[in-house]
Amino acid sequence: MNETSPPSYQNSGSLTSSETAPSHSVRVRPRHRSTYSDHAWKVEVDLPGVTKDHVSITIDQEVLRVSATRHQKLEASWRALGDYPAEKHYQLRLDVGPEVDGNQVQAVVENGRLTLTLPLRDEVKPRRIEVA
Amino acid sequence: MKLIRYQISKLPTNRASNWDALFDTPFRTLSPLLSPALSSVREAARSNAAAVEWHESDEAYRACIELPGVRREDLRLDVEDGLVRLTVERKGEQAVEAESTTRRESFEQVLRLPDMVQSVRAEARLADGILELTLPKAERPQARSIAVQ
């Protein structure tokens, strides 16, 4: 499986920008990579600064959605040396197809990276056929 | 084949302050900015360089570097000649039975330090894929008067 498609221009969201920068928020499509084997599809999503409590993962009608918010407010005595967003909303939508068993998905967040394991349904896994 | 991208990242310009007086070279930010007119969604950085954000307090500078999936044991930081060299070598990847390319990611990046920092007192903290590098500012030499003989 290759790295997924070019950026999507989602019209449901918009770049919200408050009047006083640098407190704006942005939506980001996170870097991710997929590998697959005969048994499962593995997706790694880069979500730096995000802990597991701030990640939402849903799978519905063969669509996997990952969303996470990273808050980057600076402490009182610090000032930003660039126009950085105060919040990053990571959002990723992947079509997973019917071969994935949505009930067996596992998710682990570690070091700012989400690893999803999407097992394939038994029916689609390669099977040895015994000759009677 | 190991692919290492060698990048120098520097502090962004801050036109609001007398920042520019401290540095003798122009800067650029690393954040990939898509023009708002074209897209409402930012694509995360495609380049190999890790995203860096710089902050400043009265006492120190701080670089926040995005290193998702990096563990402490994979990371090396070396300071030399006003530069911080960041090396990530991901060790101990579990056997992957998938049709993937090599998972051995090596990554190196160099950051130029601001001039007036005490690099010996630099501190680094890695949590949730963000490396925070704090660099205390050098104390300004006191004004002294010089006695005339």
Describe the overall structure.
The complex is a heterodimer of chains A (132) and B (149). Chain A is mainly beta and 132 residues long. Chain A has a single domain (31-124), classed as Immunoglobulin-like. Helices cover 0% and strands 42% of the residues of chain A. Chain A is built from no helices and 9 strands. In chain A, strands 1-7-5-4 form a 4-stranded mixed sheet, with no helix packed on it. In chain A, strands 2-3-9-8 form a 4-stranded antiparallel sheet, with no helix packed on it. In chain A, a hairpin with a 2-residue loop joins strand 4 and strand 5 (63-71). Chain A is elongated, with a radius of gyration of 19 Å. Mean pLDDT of chain A is 82; it is low at 1-22. Chain B is mainly beta and 149 residues long. Chain B has a single domain (8-32, 41-136), classed as Immunoglobulin-like. Chain B contains no helices and 9 strands. A 4-stranded mixed sheet of chain B has the order 1-7-6-5, with no helix packed on it. In chain B, strand 3 and strand 4 form a beta hairpin. Chain B is elongated, with a radius of gyration of 19 Å. The model of chain B is unreliable at 13-40 and 95-102 (pLDDT under 50). Strand 6 of chain A pairs antiparallel with strand 3 (52-56) of chain B.
Protein topology:
The complex is a heterodimer of chains A (132) and B (149).
Chain A: E1 25-29, E2 32-36, E3 40-46, E4 55-60, E5 63-71, E6 79-80, E7 87-95, E8 106-110, E9 113-119
Chain B: E1 8-9, E2 42-43, E3 52-56, E4 60-66, E5 75-80, E6 83-89, E7 106-112, E8 123-127, E9 130-136
Parallel strand pairs in B: 1-7
Antiparallel strand pairs in B: 3-4, 4-9, 5-6, 6-7, 8-9
